[in-house]
Amino acid sequence: MIPTTPYTPNSPTQHEPINDLPVHTLTHPQLFYPTSESRAFNRVDAGRVFSAAPRLPDEQDVGQGGKPLKEPWEDRKVEIIGKKGYERQVLKAADARIPHPHLIAAEQDKKNPELSNEQSLLRERYVQRLVDDEIERKEAQERRKAKEEAGQRRIEKGRWEFVVKDVQVTRPGTGLDGRGTRSPGFRYGVPSQERKRGQVKIPVQVEV
User: I need a labelling partner for 33 at 20 to 30 A (CA). Which of 13, 83, 114, 142 fits?
Assistant: First the structure.
């Protein structure tokens, strides 16, 4: 799958120089950041440095030297910094950005000498993490629905129910480029679905 070259000290095989390899343009900038030798510097700190975010205080320390207060894969909360109009999201570690952090925890359990021989316990801990993650996702979905319902008014008219939502074609809705999705209309990023293929425009049920 990956080409390999056997090591021959008498006649080494020449490879292409590293300068001829393709380099992604986003990897060109370099950042020199002084760190303390008495404090571990990991991916969590590197993400905050590249995001121009301040260092985490000790009471909110994530994954530093010794036993971490919270593993990086458990820190999935979105953090926004910057003044109004210039907000940006803090770059999280790769362990926190992947969609399946429970697999990291499962591999850590397998490397734990106290749990490596307990297959039933490993399976139980893995299933419990999946259940907790599903509960957390459902709660987040319910919170989003409740927030959406709070901005709507429902008017009962016999067989029909009208849902009214207040909209504003302003800068927060249209964005800096005028194509934000939080404002109505084709001009602001969301085209009409009327002529889209697969749209059902005939009655599919009769209410009596």
Answer: 83
Percent of the chain scoring above 90 in pLDDT: 9
- Residue 190 inside a domain? The answer is no
Range of the domain at 109: 99-150
State pLDDT tens for residues 75-133.
Answer: 778 888 888 878 888 888 877 887 788 888 888 888 888 888 888 899 999 999 889 88
Whether residues 42 and 63 share a domain: the answer is yes
Phi, psi at residue 164, to the nearest 5°? -110, 130
161 and 136, same structural domain? Answer: no
pLDDT of 65 higher than 60: no
DSSP designation for 165: E
Q: What is the band of 188 on the pLDDT scale with cuts at 50, 70, 90? A: very low
Judge if 156 and 145 occupy the same domain: no
- CA-to-CA dists, residue 144 to 52, 90, 138, 151, 208, angstroms: 29, 22, 10, 11, 32
Cα distance between residue 69 and residue 61, in whole Å: 7
Q: How many helices (H) and strands (E) does the chain have?
A: 5, 4
* CA–CA dist 63, 74 (Å, integer): 10
CA dihedral 137, 139, 142, 144 (to 10 degrees): -70
- Quote the pLDDT of residue 16: 60
- Amino acid identity, position 70: K
Question: Of the candidates 33, 38, 70, 36, which has an alpha carbon nearest to the alpha carbon of residue 49?
Answer: 33
